[in-house]
Amino acid sequence: MTNFDELKNDLLLRVARGERVERPPIWVMRQAGRYLPEYHQAKGNLDFFACCRSPEIASTLTLQPVDRYEGLIDAAIIFSDILVIPQAMGMTVEMLDKKGPHFPNPLQSPTDGQYEKLMARRVDVGKELDYVCQAITMTRRKLKGRVPLYGFCGAPWTLLCYMVEGGGSKLFVQVKTWIYKYPNESKQLLQKIAELCVEYLALQVKAGAQIVQVFDSWAAELSPTSFKNFSLPYLRYISHHLPLRLKELKLDAAPMVIFAKGAWYALDDLCDSGYRVVGLDWLQDPAEAVRIARGRVILQGNADPGVLYGGKEAITRVVREMVEGFGGGQHGWIANLGHGVTPFVDPDNLRFFFEEIHRLATTHGHTDSTL
Q: Is the pTM of this model over 0.70?
């Protein structure tokens, strides 16, 4: 395994281990991205996935928020995309300007010919997604131990959604057709994706990722019963088998995070799903989430990203509610947004968000210590 510089800021990893800390660690989803002017300078005219496939560019983009918000954030997350797994499986995925991801040839049915090829294909994850691992190793070297590095993948349910819908959707007609009309074939594909996720995350840890997150971005489209049938078993498969795969590779276990956006109804189940950290979106009340979690997991989240458009007073109000709801931040909480940073956010408003977490969590801690 590659030797990296000693980690100087291990605050987030200490929280993930369940330790008490001086303040909550902070990072945000999509912290490397379109809202930063330096992102557009580094990306130039390159296609989005071309940036993902270039270890040098992906590494540069990963480090941009760490440099810009030096001393304010406590983690980096590798610049990549959840849809690299369908690409590795042989599907074409494009990123269309102002539209988002697009599959020119999505799965139509289990008898469309493509499904059978997909299921039969043996995917060499190490070969197909080596560029991500190279970017992780390069980024760890460049970080020089400043903050830990997140790796990630998409959850099987969310990847299935994209693979059959052909992109984002409002109605999810195709994937609902699949799970209700072809439940067995859906589950077989979900299982194959889950196995690929395990290998992919293991190779990310081998390359240098110190913590990994699974994004179930479309969890809200499932009913509680459907979530238990078509998402949760595959999330549990990943959390159970990743540590075993890391052991086979003679690697230490890495903390695992599950972020199931919109699955507020499943928080209790997610707390028992084998992940050390459970990410929350902004639909959950922090204090209520703490009550449901009962100390079983670390919670991560969960400010509405839209507050960053609302100015300083609104940001302060939301941060104060978060700090109080999560109990002050000295234990059991990683501060984050409830989803990724959205386009057109003023980077200075995000800076103020970070600064307010530092200020209010520290003040809360001092107040508690005098009680």
A: yes
